[in-house]
Amino acid sequence: MKRTLHVILALLLAGSAFFLGGWAARIRRGVTVEGVPVGGMTYAEARTSVRAQLDRIPLIVHTPTGDVTPRVVYEDDLDSILRHAKRGGSYAVTVRRELPDAEEFLADVCAENVLMPQDATLTFSRRGFEYSRERAGRYCDFAASLSALLTALREGARETSLVTRVWAPSVTEAQLRARTRRLSSFSTSFDAGRTARVHNISLACERITGTVLAPGEEFSFNRAVGERTRANGFLDAPVIVAGEFVEGTGGGVCQASTTLMGAALRAGLRVTESRPHSLLVGYVPPSQDAMVSRYSDLRFVNPYAVPVYLLGRTGEGRVTFEVYGLPDGKTYSPESCVLERIAPPPAEIVEGDEEKVLRAEKAGLRSECYLVVRAADGRELGRTLFRRDRYACVQGKRQIVSTRPASPENAPA
Hints:
single chain; alpha+beta; three-stranded mixed beta sheet; 9 helices
């Protein structure tokens, strides 16, 4: 047992002597490392002297948000050179740069340099369209950036750059403008001197303009304009009731609905409800009018896959509606034809102090309207019956001066 303990103790002492001796051992004479004469120095002295001369090259990573310097770990082969140096030898040290947490470091840098893209936006109001431009974003190409970083470390480069890519927005201003082109415009004329009627037309137009119809959505004139009452802002003006023109609240609104329907038909919107007046109107061809009342509405649907936009205005004796959206390359036009003209009955005669027309006679008629669809080159693609109507005639009424002889009791003396 004692013999074994003596052996172990001897080995430990030998190892310690070797370690201490190696630490204090001297470099062979004439040895130069990185231009530093280290011959005769101890290993510790040589290590300190040479490493003071080594160029520890930093690494800078350029990014869009600023430069970043990673914590690089430097490793070299100096100890091996010192142990194996031969008398009179001249040596160069190989310095390696390592980044043990390269992927984690790069993930953080990438996250700081993400820029979300901004889509173009569209605002629609009574004033029309306003657009904001899109802004491209960026993202980090992680694989390419990691490869560039490791290559720079390996090759001793002093700088490298984060590899970024353009992140395109989903919606551009050009796309929005292409989806908001004018599909149609339709106007009718009115007597600007009839102020109450003009007020009613303008009020209806104002309440419709700025409307946006989503794909498949149905528009209702009555819902958009509201009841034609004084409380709702409308004035008294002539309206057609039972084939007669009489004073009524909201007179003139039907010209707004008729003009809007004309624009809707020409834009390719699908009219789902419209009715004619009992009498012909003078501002559109027959079967192209749209009478609205508490019991009658103008309705149409947006058949497109994108929204459509309604704008209206009045001025200089005209009311105009425009429809905006994405053109489908076709044109739509209503075409009326008269099937029969209906002559009015003989005028009603009444006696009076002078001759004058109390009510102008007006012929009635039967008519049809077809919606014609044409290609961009003018070829007719289809023709469908839109409406078939009958308009009443108006019996005239005239006043004449009486030609009957005076009765004896009234004869002059």
